[in-house]
Amino acid sequence: MITLHHLRIGRSIFTVWLLEELAVEYELKVYHRDPKTMRALDDLKQVHPLGKSPVIEDDGLIVSESGAITSYLLEKFDPDHRLSPPRSDLRQWATFTRWLHYPEGSVFTPLLIRMLLLRSGEPHTFLQGFSDKEVALHMNHIADQLADNEFILGDKFSAADIGISYMVSMAKRLGVSSDYPTLEAYLTRNQGRPAWLAAVERAVE
């Protein structure tokens, strides 16, 4: 059975969502943050030396990094390609892979900088300017890709939508999504899925 090491208030809720979409039986081990620093407590370092989440265990194999975890779970539990295209269609698979890894690649850093600036409360003209321009660049890029489609790759939900939803939800928390109504509608649509609601019920509430 898959064991997911889940840190409350963080990105691993999106791995819970993927497991629910895959209808995989899994054990959830919940970890908490230091209420003052909001950093993970040291108990998570007993699982992985970085003390980060998500981390999964499967028959003694430890897998970290959200993108790697997603690829592993799809390879093992999605033989019918409900949430990803087959590798035999190289063009579709390459497009899917690009959007699968995009959230924690290019787009995450400017959003992280914005979050840290808000937390610090200290002015930093250079970082603020960089973050504002990059966030706008990426929000427009996602909105252009989505266009009038229901999901990021067209009319079918895929695992890439989980990561993109993570980025849009982060942008919404940081107050930068209101200029992109199609992205907010996209997030609302995805977070109405039964698998997301089940993930929240199990891992948040």
UniProtKB/TrEMBL annotation:
TM segment ranges: none
Quick check: keyword Phosphoprotein in the entry?
no
Enzyme Commission number(s) of this protein: 2.5.1.18
Instruction: Identify the keywords attached in UniProt to this record, alphabetized.
Output: Transferase
Catalytic reaction equation(s): RX + glutathione = an S-substituted glutathione + a halide anion + H(+)
UniProt-listed InterPro entries: Glutathione-S-Trfase_C_sf (IPR036282), Glutathione_S-Trfase (IPR040079), Glutathione_S-Trfase_N (IPR004045), Thioredoxin-like_sf (IPR036249)
Q: What Pfam families does this protein's entry cite?
A: GST_C_2 (PF13410), GST_N (PF02798)
Asked if the Swiss-Prot or TrEMBL record annotates the protein with the keyword Transferase, the reply is: yes
Q: Which residues form the GST N-terminal domain?
A: 1-81
What molecular function terms (GO) are annotated for this protein? glutathione transferase activity; peroxidase activity
What is one term from the GO cellular component aspect held by the record?
Answer: cytoplasm
- Its name, as the record gives it, is glutathione transferase
Q: Which organism is it from?
A: Pseudohongiella acticola
